[in-house]
Design the sequence.
């Protein structure tokens, strides 16, 4: 029984409305804090493009890993994974364009990289960075990632849809294609995380960052697959997919959530324990901003505690409503995770930071004056003038503190040191990117039958029954 998805005009209209909402969100964000070179707008574009690109390439990874492992559980949902990969044919090149526009001074996301490139003389610890981020080498790598992802997306969709999959020669070729992608994925996924995200702060390092990104958009990809399977079943498709297959997807979602938590804690704990400035700077900046301190712990609650408490249960993974809600929540939770990585560096309120720095320097000079006065007080016999000056400064400091306290009581707004935040604009932009992602998904899904009837493992996939918790 061949099932081919019908991409109806009604569904297309709904997705175009979502994309229109996203455009409104971009317009809204464009007018937020224009004094910061519209960094919040470009942060939204980068975070969403990178996030959905990660989900897209992970879909190909799921098929490749299942093929190499001689797996059968995923055959009924294999076309879902392959259709997730359709978005990368456009988004990979959009990511390249974002970096190119940054180098052309259209936006300021990668100003830290440009500062290193234009630094004269180059600091000793920046020499390798200058080589790594040389514009030609940098852009060449990004184009290579985008080209390879698009090539494998097109090739895997076409090859795995062949009608002669039972031919041993074709089956062997599928193994080779899967192996080639696994190697490509291992290199490009990690390197892309450095080239697009880690370099937003050129002073920060994390040897776990590639793995961390893999776990985060891996969770999002499993969650997206669960939601799409439930949606397609509600429309009468995928009748052979039952709660056992969704249970398997739920176990993978739960397992990757724990894996993500392990990497989060491992990265944080090791960097905190080592206390190396190049590593701790990431956490100091975020814990110094109350908003980001909140969103960091929000991601832990959504992405770890929720799966641990709710999705660990067998019944939750077999109940479409519960697992559907959990999947939707985790998609948002991992979006917030990438928000924490992409928004803080470009969105500083430099005016507020300079004022804060000046205030700190002023207070520091007063403290130094007081210390010097006390020293002189002990060293000379005539301390009357020093005492008078010391008391005068102390009175001034107390007076300023009192004025600040009164200003706080009166509700005087203190300017934020960072313009970033998840507001209505961010939510609208996220909806728009989700609409574009789903449009690419459904358009690709409609090209071929949903169930690969010619796959040699199809019968085994249909007979899967999960009998354990």
Sequence:
């Amino acid at each position: 029984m061949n099932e081919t998805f019908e991409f109806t005009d009604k569904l297309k209209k709904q997705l175009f409305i979502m994309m229109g909402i996203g455009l409104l969100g971009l317009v809204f964000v464009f007018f937020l804090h224009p004094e910061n070179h519209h960094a919040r707008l470009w942060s939204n574009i980068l975070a969403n493009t990178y996030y959905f690109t990660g989900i897209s390439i992970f879909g190909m990874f799921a098929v490749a890993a299942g093929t190499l492992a001689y797996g059968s559980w995923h055959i009924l949902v294999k076309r879902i994974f392959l259709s997730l990969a359709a978005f990368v044919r456009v988004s990979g090149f959009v990511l390249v364009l974002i970096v190119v526009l940054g180098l052309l001074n259209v936006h300021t996301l990668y100003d830290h990289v440009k500062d290193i490139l234009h630094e004269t003389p180059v600091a000793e610890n920046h020499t390798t960075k200058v080589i790594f981020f040389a514009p030609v080498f940098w852009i060449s790598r990004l184009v290579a990632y985008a080209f390879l992802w698009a090539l494998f997306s097109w090739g895997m969709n076409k090859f795995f849809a062949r009608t002669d999959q039972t031919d041993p020669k074709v089956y062997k070729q599928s193994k080779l294609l899967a192996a080639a992608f696994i190697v490509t994925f291992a290199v490009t996924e990690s390197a892309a995380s450095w080239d697009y995200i880690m370099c937003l702060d050129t002073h920060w390092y994390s040897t776990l960052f590639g793995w961390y990104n893999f776990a985060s958009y891996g969770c999002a990809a499993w969650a997206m697959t669960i939601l799409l399977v439930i949606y397609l079943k509600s429309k009468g498709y995928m009748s052979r997919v039952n709660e056992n297959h969704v249970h398997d997807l739920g176990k993978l979602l739960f397992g990757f959530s724990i894996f993500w938590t392990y990497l989060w804690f491992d990265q944080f704990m090791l960097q905190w324990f080592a206390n190396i400035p190049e590593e701790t700077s990431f956490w100091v900046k975020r814990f110094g901003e109350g908003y980001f301190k909140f969103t960091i712990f929000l991601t832990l609650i959504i992405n770890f505690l929720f799966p641990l408490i709710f999705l660990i249960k067998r019944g939750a993974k077999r109940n479409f409503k519960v697992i559907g809600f959990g999947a939707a929540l985790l998609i948002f939770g991992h979006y917030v995770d990438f928000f924490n990585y992409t928004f803080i560096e470009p969105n500083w309120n430099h005016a507020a930071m300079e004022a804060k720095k000046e205030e700190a320097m002023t207070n520091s000079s007063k403290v130094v004056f007081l210390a010097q006065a006390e020293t002189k007080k002990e060293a000379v016999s005539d301390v009357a003038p020093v005492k008078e000056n010391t008391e005068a400064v102390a009175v001034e400091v107390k007076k300023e503190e009192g004025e600040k306290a009164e200003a706080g009581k009166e509700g005087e707004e203190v300017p934020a040191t960072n313009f970033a935040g998840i507001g209505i604009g961010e939510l609208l932009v996220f909806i728009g990117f989700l609409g574009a992602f789903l449009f690419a998904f459904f358009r690709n899904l409609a090209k071929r039958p949903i169930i690969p009837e010619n796959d040699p493992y199809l019968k085994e996939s249909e007979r899967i029954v999960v009998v354990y918790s």
In short: Confidence is low (pLDDT under 50) at residues 380-384, 407-411. The radius of gyration is 27 Å.
